[in-house]
């Protein structure tokens, strides 16, 4: 009787990068997995103190690790990523949704091993990260955006305190933090209660009449509500001071960057002046951004200086990470996320995303609602065809495509391109109407008053 031969079964893994590691990031501890061929202890645990992180980096450098994959877990990954980059080790930041493990038991050790396997066989795509000088501006700009949101919250607290005292001044004035509103609030906090005396602070640009303002300033003053109003106003002034300080630091960073870009490009011809934003930067942002991009992004309809600053802070001027405009719009989550199965389309909704640039482009699209330019016409057309939400996303997608073309080619925005497409659309509509009229037995005659 012949004996069965023992066959050694080996796992075949198409390893692309044998020097790939992975880290499972936590607030207090980090688990790091390396290939079993490089170390006897393939998984090690480190604490998140700076000294321990440096030991982690030295251990990986001793094993000749070339790249480390990690999930974007809050902000805990930033310290390790920066130390790895300083040591010359590549960082592959991945979306946690793309590295979900198979069902079963879950632990930090298994997570980092699964992440290391996926990274070694080339199944992970690194998230977009701009260069270090852009990330420095991004950190400051995001902090400034947080301060702006906090200032809006304090204004809401002021509105609440005024409502509780039945002072309707914030319903009469367009902005309680304007010239008239600020003077009235400061006078109230100093002890003035006479409505006629408070109404004398009315600026000549206020549309409400003095009589209406007197009625709005007649209320029931209570100490507890005045205390809340005082604290909200003081907090608003403090936050505005912090915003000014942030503008100084951002302006200095941009000045340092513009010194390395050479002379400023030629100033484009001045068009219609744009209305300044409420929280406009306290530095010449438009000039600095024109020097960094090599082209003026604010010439694009709907794109303000704040939007252009957000574009630079989130992307920089180098879009080589996005091979085509389709990749760029997909990163922004402004295109349909088509899901099909068995030849049937299950969903075409856009992917949920917290992309700050996509949010800024949606705000830019919203500003086109009543605008008298080509993008305003496009927004109203798509809104009527698709609906409010879908029309907004379609317009933001259009602005994103224009931004990509302007930044990558460094060519100023040319409105005649969209104007020509609008003319073609108008000619097609006229031809279609003539065809329908002939089919129904009618003949269209143009109105001479509109020619």
Secondary-structure element pattern, one letter each: EEEHEHEHHHHHHHHHHEEHHHH
Q: Can you tell me the number of structural domains?
A: 3
DSSP helix fraction:
40-55%
Query: Rg from C-alpha positions?
Result: 30 Å
Largest sheet: 5 strands, mixed
- Total helix count? 16
Total strand segments: 7
Which regions have little confidence, pLDDT < 50, spanning 5+ residues? Answer: 5-12
Cα(first) to Cα(last) distance is 103 Å
The oligomeric status of these chains comes to single chain
What percentage of the residues does DSSP assign to strands (E)? 5-15%
Strand order of the largest sheet: 3-2-1-4-5
Structural class of the secondary structure composition? alpha/beta
Task: Provide keyphrases for this structure.
single chain; 451 residues; alpha/beta; Nucleotidyltransferase, domain 5; 3 domains; 5-stranded mixed beta sheet; two-stranded antiparallel sheet; 16 helices
Topology at a glance:
Blueprint: E1 20-25, E2 29-33, E3 43-47, H1 50-62, E4 67-71, H2 77-86, E5 90-94, H3 108-120, H4 132-164, H5 169-172, H6 179-189, H7 195-199, H8 210-216, H9 223-258, H10 285-293, H11 305-315, H12 325-331, E6 339-341, E7 344-347, H13 356-366, H14 374-386, H15 388-409, H16 415-440
Parallel strand pairs: 1-4, 4-5
Antiparallel strand pairs: 1-2, 2-3, 6-7
Helix pairs in contact: 1-2, 4-9, 4-11, 9-10, 10-11, 11-13, 12-15, 13-15, 14-15
């Amino acid at each position: 009787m012949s004996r069965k031969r023992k066959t050694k079964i080996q796992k075949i893994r198409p390893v692309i990068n044998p020097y790939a590691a992975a880290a499972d990031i936590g607030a207090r501890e980090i688990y790091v997995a390396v290939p079993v061929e490089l170390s006897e202890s393939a998984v090690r645990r480190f604490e998140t103190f700076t000294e321990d992180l440096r030991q982690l980096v030295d251990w990986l450098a001793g094993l000749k690790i070339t790249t480390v994959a990690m999930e974007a877990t809050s902000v805990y990954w930033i310290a390790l990523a920066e130390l790895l980059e300083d040591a010359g080790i590549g960082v592959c930041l991945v979306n946690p949704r793309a590295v979900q493990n198979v069902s079963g038991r879950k632990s930090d050790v298994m997570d980092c091993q699964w992440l290391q396997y996926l990274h070694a066989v080339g199944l992970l795509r690194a998230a977009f990260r701009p260069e270090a000088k852009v990330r420095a501006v991004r950190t400051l700009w995001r902090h400034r955006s947080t301060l702006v949101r906090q200032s809006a919250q304090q204004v809401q607290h002021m509105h609440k305190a005024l409502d509780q005292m039945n002072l309707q001044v914030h319903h009469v004035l367009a902005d309680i933090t304007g010239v008239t509103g600020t003077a009235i609030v400061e006078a109230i906090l100093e002890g003035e209660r006479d409505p006629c005396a408070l109404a004398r602070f009315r600026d000549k640009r206020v549309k409400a009449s003095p009589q209406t303002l007197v009625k709005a300033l007649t209320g029931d003053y209570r100490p507890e509500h005045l205390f809340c109003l005082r604290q909200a106003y003081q907090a608003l002034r403090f936050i505005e001071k912090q915003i000014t300080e942030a503008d100084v630091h951002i302006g200095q960073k941009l000045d340092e960057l513009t010194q390395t870009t050479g002379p400023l490009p030629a100033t484009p011809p001045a068009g219609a002046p744009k209305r300044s934003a409420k929280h406009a930067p306290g530095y010449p942002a438009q000039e600095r951004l024109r020097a960094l991009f090599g082209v003026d992004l604010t010439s694009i309809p709907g794109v303000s200086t704040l939007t252009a600053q957000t574009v630079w802070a989130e992307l920089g001027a180098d879009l080589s990470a996005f091979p085509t405009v389709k990749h760029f719009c997909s990163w922004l989550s402004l295109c349909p996320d088509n899901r099909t199965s068995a030849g049937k389309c299950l969903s075409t909704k856009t992917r949920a995303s917290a992309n700050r640039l996509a949010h800024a482009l949606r705000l830019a699209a919203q500003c086109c609602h009543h605008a008298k330019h080509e993008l305003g016409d496009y927004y109203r057309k798509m809104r009527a065809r698709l609906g409010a939400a879908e029309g907004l996303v379609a317009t933001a997608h259009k602005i994103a495509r224009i931004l990509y073309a302007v930044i990558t080619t460094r060519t100023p925005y040319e409105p005649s391109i969209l104007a020509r497409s609008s003319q073609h659309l108008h000619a097609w509509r006229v031809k279609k109407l003539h065809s329908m009229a002939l089919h129904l037995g009618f003949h269209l005659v143009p109105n001479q008053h509109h020619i």
